[in-house]
Bacteriocin/lantibiotic efflux ABC transporter, permease/ATP-binding protein
Amino acid sequence: MQSIVDHVFVGKDKDLLDILVIAFILISLLQSAMYLIRSWSSRVFISSLGVVWEKRLFVKLLKLPINFFESRSLGEILSRFNSIRTIQNVLAGSLIEVLMDGLMSFLALCIMLYYSGVMVTMTVLSLIVYYIIRLSLFSRIRTHVESEYTALAKQQSHAVETIRGIQTLKLFVGEKKRLDAWFNLLIETTNESLSLAWFRINFVVLKRFIVGIERVIVIWYGSHLVLNQQFSVGMLIAFLAYREIFSSRASALIDRLMEFRLLKVHVLRLTDITNSNVERQEGRNFSEEVKNIQIKNLYFKYAENESWVIKDLSLSIQKNQSIAIVGKSGCGKSTLIKLIIGLLEAENGKITINNKDISSIILKDYRSSFGVVMQDDQLFAGNISQNIALFNEDIDMRMVVDSAKKASIHNDIKKMTMGYNTLVGDMGSVFSGGQKQRILLARALYKKPKVLILDEATSHLDKDNEFFINQSMKNLSVICITVAHRKETIACADRVLEMKGGKIIRDCKPSEYLNE
């Protein structure tokens, strides 16, 4: 610009003008090409990095113990993954730009110093003022960001719970109450978002005001230099052009650095997963036939300030025995089951399998010996055969059918138009409660378990299906542990263990228990 004003206009050099125009066009093409390459390569790199991050986070999530999930809502956990995407988007949009802004700011500053140190000082001081203001208000911005994500997690959790419980809501005509509660959470989230947006808009206004005042002062001072013949018009125009580059790049650099600092909020949210202790991954291998399970002086409670759920419990189960665990709700039956299969860890005492402490065995190997149906087990989106085989890559249809027959669900499946290819809706909503339980039982049997554990696994079945399944379980020649209330299931067991207050108060034959 200085050459055009001082040489082309003053000297009326048209040839120089043509050369400068061509040079400007080439520079524009080069800048466009560099922007394209820089932006695309940055996006590809950060996206690839994001895939690695999300996979590692999900792998870590799957390794966490069951109590991690029981103490957090689904929406709260899912919102942690939103934090990864936020980090990814900020890095993809800003990482290369920060480097470029820093480089361009430095180069522009060096050129500006060649023209006038005084005017450079004015420009730099204005940016320092802007930086100090942003830094002083950073804690408030951070608080609003944290509040926004907390409110969003609550809203998502409420929506997920509403969808999962839609049948209950319709039966109790509770849609309006849930809608009102969700709307209040939506308003809370929106208000937090607006508060954050208000701060950011004010920063833009503040930046424009400070830069605008500084620009006026620089032009005023530079104009005096031109009038005093210390500057040419071209020099002033060139300085203002470089000043514009420096000011815009440096202020953008400040904004991006503040955004980087805000990423700590999201990093801290991720530490809820990354810093949590995983389930035991080490130990000895275990693949042998299960001959016995021993429990000695077992104690367990869910929290330090709570009472014992399992208290000084001892138990011995031998090969091929069928055990029925009975007792009132809340006496510790399901907790005992979770302790046996390694979902929970005892406070004191120990559990052994084939005289080996389960704490010394790799959990995956240990659990592979069990076929389990819990009260709140779920079916997954897919077809019936995939659910029975739990989405194994190589599904053995012969085993699928055999497992379904033993679980008394084969005939029901054959009556369906698509048979074993019938699609299962989310949460298994296509099937009745009894059908769902039998598919879950077939899934447990597909593993060819050495120990079968059923926690109220036949509570929704009619007597005929329950009788058939109980007879099938007797013929399996495996240890079978059943939590039961129904007489028909209890009668099929070899032993009945009655629990009360976290203890086994009675160990007897089914006939003795049922007669009383």
